[in-house]
Specification:
0% strand, 207 residues, 9 helices
Length: 207
């Protein structure tokens, strides 16, 4: 137990350091940030949030799973938590994170001998439906969300992806209603749905 706690903390510290540096680099090189003048104010709690979330998630993975799934789930923790942070801070999901996340998901399907057809179909159908929704919504749903759903399809397969989409949509919708009622957002404001899909995916993968 002590060794798992120690390793969880050490991994979380490393992931927090690397993740923070990566996010800062992406912010510096991006020309499409939603809040370019509020980077410092919106990221002031980033490090403790990253560290606490990653410590808890890593401990769960290390204490309940076996290799090679353990290594894939630690990677999922890292990427999904980072994407949650960037979407909350800047309403952005970066291809630089989504693409390697999707690639690791595809490798996982092959390595663990999962149903290739099911996972590929989930990525294609899930990504296609969200692409259509993004077009219909005139930008209310971003391209980053479309790519995230496609990547999650590779990780989860059809049935689990459907659960994640339902949970994430309901969670994001409730949060949007709350923000509108408290007048922190208007009906025409953009809402970050990525974090709700990412966190729902973590729950589905781990629990």
């Amino acid at each position: 137990m002590f060794s798992e706690i120690f390793l969880s903390v050490m991994l979380a510290a490393l992931m927090t350091f690397v993740g923070t540096r990566w996010i800062e680099r992406l912010y510096r090189t991006s020309k499409d940030l939603t809040f370019p003048d509020e980077i410092l104010s919106r990221s002031r709690y980033r490090r403790p949030i990253l560290f606490c979330m990653l410590t808890a998630l890593n401990f769960y993975v290390l204490s309940t799973t076996i290799a090679p799934e353990k290594f894939f789930l630690l990677a999922a923790n890292f990427f999904l938590v980072l994407m949650t942070v960037t979407d909350f801070e800047q309403y952005m999901l970066f291809d630089a994170m989504t693409i390697p996340f999707a690639t690791i998901g595809a490798i996982r399907v092959w390595q663990l001998s999962l149903n290739v057809h099911d996972h590929a179909l989930a990525a294609i159908i899930g990504g296609g439906i969200f692409l259509l929704l993004a077009i219909i919504s005139s930008g209310s749903l971003g391209g980053g969300d479309v790519k995230l759903i496609a990547a999650l399809g590779l990780w989860l397969g059809c049935e689990k992806l459907l659960s994640v989409v339902l949970i994430g949509t309901v969670g994001g919708g409730l949060a949007a209603v709350l923000l509108i009622l408290t007048k922190k957002k208007s009906r025409n404001s953009y809402f970050a749905y990525g974090p709700y899909f990412a966190l729902s995916a973590l729950y589905t993968l781990l629990i």
